[in-house]
Amino acid sequence: MNKQRAVGLLSGGPDSAATLAIALREGYDVHALSFDYGQRHRIELNRAAQIARLLGVASHKVIVFDLRAIGGSALTSDIAVPKADPAAPVGVGIPVTYVPARNTIFLSLALAYAETLGAAHIFIGVNALDYSGYPDCRPEYIAAYERMANLAIKEAVEGRLAIRIHTPLIGMTKKEIIQSGARLGVDFSMTLSCYDPAPNGAPCGQCDSCRLRARGFEEAGLNDPASQGGSR
Q: Taking the model in full, what pTM does it have?
Protein backbone atom coordinates (compact mmCIF):
# COMPACT_ATOMS: atom_id res chain seq x y z
CA MET A 1 0.00 0.00 0.00
CA ASN A 2 1.34 3.42 -0.95
CA LYS A 3 1.44 5.80 1.99
CA GLN A 4 0.37 9.41 1.61
CA ARG A 5 3.34 11.76 1.70
CA ALA A 6 3.53 14.53 4.26
CA VAL A 7 5.99 17.29 5.12
CA GLY A 8 6.60 17.59 8.86
CA LEU A 9 8.20 20.68 10.36
CA LEU A 10 10.85 19.63 12.87
CA SER A 11 12.55 22.13 15.17
CA GLY A 12 14.18 19.72 17.60
CA GLY A 13 11.73 20.58 20.38
CA PRO A 14 9.24 18.30 22.12
CA ASP A 15 6.20 19.68 20.29
CA SER A 16 7.53 19.09 16.79
CA ALA A 17 8.88 15.66 17.81
CA ALA A 18 5.46 14.66 19.15
CA THR A 19 3.81 16.00 15.99
CA LEU A 20 6.02 13.89 13.74
CA ALA A 21 5.38 10.84 15.91
CA ILE A 22 1.64 11.40 15.49
CA ALA A 23 1.99 11.76 11.71
CA LEU A 24 3.94 8.52 11.54
CA ARG A 25 1.42 6.72 13.72
CA GLU A 26 -1.31 7.87 11.35
CA GLY A 27 0.53 6.17 8.51
CA TYR A 28 2.04 9.08 6.60
CA ASP A 29 5.31 8.89 4.69
CA VAL A 30 6.89 11.82 6.53
CA HIS A 31 9.57 14.06 5.05
CA ALA A 32 10.95 16.18 7.89
CA LEU A 33 11.93 19.79 7.26
CA SER A 34 14.06 21.95 9.56
CA PHE A 35 15.31 25.51 9.24
CA ASP A 36 18.68 27.06 9.95
CA TYR A 37 17.51 30.67 10.01
CA GLY A 38 20.13 32.36 12.16
CA GLN A 39 18.42 31.44 15.40
CA ARG A 40 20.19 31.95 18.71
CA HIS A 41 19.45 28.34 19.68
CA ARG A 42 20.87 26.80 16.50
CA ILE A 43 21.94 23.72 18.48
CA GLU A 44 18.31 22.62 18.09
CA LEU A 45 19.21 21.47 14.57
CA ASN A 46 21.52 18.80 15.98
CA ARG A 47 18.62 17.55 18.06
CA ALA A 48 16.31 17.62 15.04
CA ALA A 49 18.69 15.37 13.12
CA GLN A 50 18.79 12.89 16.01
CA ILE A 51 15.00 12.88 16.35
CA ALA A 52 14.52 12.36 12.61
CA ARG A 53 16.81 9.32 12.70
CA LEU A 54 15.16 7.88 15.79
CA LEU A 55 11.63 8.27 14.46
CA GLY A 56 12.57 6.82 11.09
CA VAL A 57 11.21 9.51 8.79
CA ALA A 58 11.52 9.07 5.03
CA SER A 59 13.94 12.00 4.74
CA HIS A 60 15.19 15.03 6.63
CA LYS A 61 16.11 18.27 4.91
CA VAL A 62 17.52 21.48 6.42
CA ILE A 63 16.90 24.75 4.57
CA VAL A 64 19.32 27.58 5.32
CA PHE A 65 18.42 31.27 5.29
CA ASP A 66 19.16 34.23 7.56
CA LEU A 67 16.44 36.01 9.50
CA ARG A 68 19.13 37.91 11.40
CA ALA A 69 19.16 40.19 8.38
CA ILE A 70 15.67 41.26 9.49
CA GLY A 71 16.06 40.90 13.25
CA GLY A 72 13.28 42.19 15.45
CA SER A 73 13.41 39.21 17.83
CA ALA A 74 15.47 38.03 20.76
CA LEU A 75 16.03 34.82 18.78
CA THR A 76 17.48 36.53 15.70
CA SER A 77 19.21 39.64 17.08
CA ASP A 78 21.14 40.84 20.12
CA ILE A 79 17.98 41.51 22.14
CA ALA A 80 18.22 39.66 25.46
CA VAL A 81 15.97 36.65 25.99
CA PRO A 82 13.68 37.45 28.94
CA LYS A 83 14.35 35.33 32.03
CA ALA A 84 12.37 34.76 35.21
CA ASP A 85 12.35 32.47 38.19
CA PRO A 86 11.53 28.91 37.02
CA ALA A 87 8.34 28.92 39.12
CA ALA A 88 7.11 32.25 37.73
CA PRO A 89 4.12 32.21 35.35
CA VAL A 90 4.65 32.94 31.68
CA GLY A 91 3.85 36.57 30.93
CA VAL A 92 0.92 37.85 28.92
CA GLY A 93 1.19 39.53 25.54
CA ILE A 94 3.49 38.78 22.64
CA PRO A 95 7.08 38.52 23.94
CA VAL A 96 10.32 39.66 22.28
CA THR A 97 11.08 36.02 21.41
CA TYR A 98 8.40 36.32 18.69
CA VAL A 99 10.16 36.12 15.30
CA PRO A 100 8.36 38.32 12.75
CA ALA A 101 6.29 36.19 10.36
CA ARG A 102 8.29 33.05 11.22
CA ASN A 103 5.53 30.48 10.77
CA THR A 104 4.41 32.16 7.56
CA ILE A 105 7.95 31.80 6.22
CA PHE A 106 8.26 28.23 7.49
CA LEU A 107 4.91 27.17 6.06
CA SER A 108 5.68 28.80 2.72
CA LEU A 109 8.88 26.79 2.40
CA ALA A 110 7.06 23.66 3.54
CA LEU A 111 4.36 24.33 0.95
CA ALA A 112 6.92 24.65 -1.83
CA TYR A 113 8.61 21.44 -0.70
CA ALA A 114 5.27 19.64 -0.46
CA GLU A 115 4.42 20.64 -4.02
CA THR A 116 7.69 19.18 -5.34
CA LEU A 117 7.02 15.95 -3.43
CA GLY A 118 3.38 15.71 -4.49
CA ALA A 119 2.49 15.81 -0.78
CA ALA A 120 -0.94 17.13 0.18
CA HIS A 121 -0.24 17.16 3.92
CA ILE A 122 1.84 19.47 6.11
CA PHE A 123 2.27 18.84 9.85
CA ILE A 124 3.27 21.65 12.20
CA GLY A 125 3.47 21.50 16.00
CA VAL A 126 1.80 24.81 16.86
CA ASN A 127 -0.13 25.10 20.10
CA ALA A 128 -2.68 27.70 21.18
CA LEU A 129 -2.99 26.85 24.89
CA ASP A 130 0.35 26.52 26.72
CA TYR A 131 2.46 28.78 24.53
CA SER A 132 4.05 32.24 24.53
CA GLY A 133 1.25 34.14 22.80
CA TYR A 134 2.59 34.08 19.26
CA PRO A 135 -0.09 35.15 16.75
CA ASP A 136 0.99 32.58 14.15
CA CYS A 137 0.12 29.67 16.44
CA ARG A 138 -3.64 30.36 16.50
CA PRO A 139 -6.25 28.16 14.78
CA GLU A 140 -7.59 31.10 12.75
CA TYR A 141 -4.12 31.76 11.36
CA ILE A 142 -3.67 28.13 10.33
CA ALA A 143 -7.11 28.03 8.68
CA ALA A 144 -6.37 31.22 6.75
CA TYR A 145 -2.99 29.91 5.63
CA GLU A 146 -4.50 26.66 4.42
CA ARG A 147 -7.05 28.57 2.33
CA MET A 148 -4.29 30.68 0.85
CA ALA A 149 -2.09 27.65 0.14
CA ASN A 150 -4.75 26.09 -2.04
CA LEU A 151 -4.90 29.29 -4.09
CA ALA A 152 -1.15 29.67 -4.35
CA ILE A 153 0.36 26.60 -5.98
CA LYS A 154 0.05 25.06 -9.41
CA GLU A 155 -0.71 21.55 -8.17
CA ALA A 156 -3.69 22.79 -6.16
CA VAL A 157 -5.04 25.19 -8.79
CA GLU A 158 -4.90 22.44 -11.41
CA GLY A 159 -6.68 20.01 -9.10
CA ARG A 160 -3.92 17.50 -8.33
CA LEU A 161 -3.38 18.43 -4.67
CA ALA A 162 -5.65 19.70 -1.93
CA ILE A 163 -3.30 21.01 0.73
CA ARG A 164 -4.19 20.27 4.34
CA ILE A 165 -2.26 21.68 7.28
CA HIS A 166 -2.38 19.36 10.28
CA THR A 167 -2.01 20.80 13.79
CA PRO A 168 -2.59 17.82 16.11
CA LEU A 169 -1.32 19.69 19.19
CA ILE A 170 -3.14 22.97 18.73
CA GLY A 171 -5.76 22.31 21.40
CA MET A 172 -3.53 20.41 23.83
CA THR A 173 -1.96 21.60 27.05
CA LYS A 174 1.77 21.09 27.45
CA LYS A 175 0.96 18.28 29.86
CA GLU A 176 -1.11 16.53 27.19
CA ILE A 177 1.61 17.03 24.58
CA ILE A 178 4.22 15.43 26.83
CA GLN A 179 1.89 12.54 27.65
CA SER A 180 1.05 11.98 23.99
CA GLY A 181 4.70 12.02 22.96
CA ALA A 182 5.63 9.64 25.75
CA ARG A 183 2.94 7.17 24.67
CA LEU A 184 4.33 7.27 21.13
CA GLY A 185 7.88 6.59 22.28
CA VAL A 186 9.38 10.05 21.75
CA ASP A 187 12.79 10.24 23.42
CA PHE A 188 12.48 13.62 25.11
CA SER A 189 16.12 13.47 26.20
CA MET A 190 16.98 14.40 22.60
CA THR A 191 14.71 17.42 22.48
CA LEU A 192 15.62 21.04 23.21
CA SER A 193 13.15 23.75 24.23
CA CYS A 194 15.44 26.49 25.52
CA TYR A 195 15.65 29.82 23.69
CA ASP A 196 19.06 30.63 25.19
CA PRO A 197 20.96 27.40 25.79
CA ALA A 198 24.60 27.10 26.72
CA PRO A 199 27.00 26.06 23.94
CA ASN A 200 26.71 22.45 25.14
CA GLY A 201 22.91 22.59 24.93
CA ALA A 202 22.26 22.95 28.67
CA PRO A 203 18.93 24.76 29.13
CA CYS A 204 18.82 28.09 30.95
CA GLY A 205 15.75 26.98 32.92
CA GLN A 206 14.40 30.55 33.03
CA CYS A 207 13.11 31.50 29.57
CA ASP A 208 9.42 31.12 28.72
CA SER A 209 10.04 27.95 26.77
CA CYS A 210 12.01 26.28 29.57
CA ARG A 211 9.35 27.16 32.11
CA LEU A 212 6.50 25.91 29.92
CA ARG A 213 8.38 22.66 29.37
CA ALA A 214 9.10 22.20 33.08
CA ARG A 215 5.45 22.81 33.95
CA GLY A 216 4.33 20.32 31.30
CA PHE A 217 6.53 17.54 32.62
CA GLU A 218 5.57 18.29 36.21
CA GLU A 219 1.84 18.22 35.45
CA ALA A 220 2.29 15.03 33.42
CA GLY A 221 3.93 13.40 36.43
CA LEU A 222 7.10 12.67 34.46
CA ASN A 223 10.74 13.57 34.95
CA ASP A 224 12.25 15.58 32.11
CA PRO A 225 15.18 13.45 30.87
CA ALA A 226 16.77 16.49 29.23
CA SER A 227 16.70 18.66 32.35
CA GLN A 228 20.05 19.73 33.72
CA GLY A 229 18.78 21.85 36.53
CA GLY A 230 19.21 25.07 34.58
CA SER A 231 23.02 24.73 34.77
CA ARG A 232 25.10 26.58 32.21
A: 0.94
